[in-house]
Request: fold
Amino acid sequence: MISIIADYARLLRAGWTLSRRDALVPKEFAYLAPAPVRAFGALSRLGANRKGRPGERLAHAFEKLGPAYVKLGQFMATRPDIIGFDMANDLGRLQDKMPPFSEKEARREIETAFGKPADVLYDGFTAPIAAASIAQAHQAALKDGRKVAVKILRPRIEQKAGAEFRAFGRAARAVESVSKTARRMEPVKFVETLKAAAAIELDLRMEAGAASELAEDLSDEAQVRIPEVIWPLTAKRILTVEWIDGTPLGDTAALDTRGVDRKALAKLVIHVFLKQALHTGFFHADMHQGNMIVDAKGRLGLIDFGIMGRLDEEARQTFAEIIYGFITRDYARTAEVHFAAGYVPPGHSREAFAQALRAVGEPLQGRNAAQVDMSRVLQQLFDVTALFDMHLRPELVLLQRTMVTVEGVARLLDPEIDMWAAATPVVKDYVNKAIGPMAQAEKLKAAALKAVELAPKLPGYIETFNRAAEKIAAAEAKADEKPPARGATFALWALAAAVIALAAAILIR
Reply:
């Protein structure tokens, strides 16, 4: 009961803050609401500060409400199908910057984690150089002289975020219970995905593990650099990694001054994202321009691994086949992939869905980024999802968000980039490896090895089948007071024979 009261108190506080910015029932959208909601909205905006667009006002309110709301806003920016493109763009620029907590508190966190003062562990430990919604960063040096970045969680951030997400969940359940449209977008699963991602961000050991894993996955990419984790100085609330000097991708003027080939860099960004998402299924899910830099050797450096995504092999194959279908203009195959993956509910026409995909894909063929209005393309895609009752796939939320972010960075670097052409080599390579002849040969080899492993165990399985059959037959005979029946024994022997035949068929092929 107390938690329910606390949740509603938090929601009321949030509602008050939003209303002061006219971001609760914005005047611009009030005409779409029922009469009671319009009346409530008119009252809520009395005395409100209406400066800026609705999305800008909402972003300012979220920044005032704190870290959990900043994360909510950033995730909302990935759903223009729900909130509209203008608002999504405004929330997409939501700043993850907060006032820093004191250096004294930071030093106390270090001593609590490692049992030693910061000056014993580091040289030149600085005041905060950057402060975000969940943590802040300091610069320092190890005792051997290597420069490092030290990331420290905000005091009591876990408790604050947990309480806010609980309130989000309560609000999402309420919305989902009263709106059919909202149920299709699955706000409860959306909040659960957001909460799960935040939980990982709140354990910096997870971020350290992510950086280490990603470094291994991209070890064959000579033009990519991942900072080394300093494990002895990493704990749940402290992360120490190698410092990378470089130029942020957002500073295009500095990149030009250095003579960086921005067109090549844009293609590299797309290549690196797709390599992660398709070939390993583990990807950096926060690839905005502030988290990518070009180091002194011209390598693309990725930093900040708090938000990572994973796709299993089936999801990766589906994702690749959908992209490849658009690239090759095979809309029938692309539609079939959607149905096979369960993205489109059964009962809809495959031909009609392929036709809808063609209407989306054809205007993109042979055109560069400057010639394509992606907002219109995305709006058409979202119209298709509504028309064919496609539900949100929670496991794809981070992928969708990252794709939009990566596309934005690539456009910033090269406004004329052809996204399909840049994506084709990586996607084609994955498709060949995943479903081409070599892939089928590997699957056959794996099946044969399994059969070889199974063969020595077959006599034991058959004996088990035989004993089970005799027991079943005896029980049937006792129940019917008839001579033991052989039907059950025959059925189980048939099953055993089928297993042997299957193994033999695999071995012979």
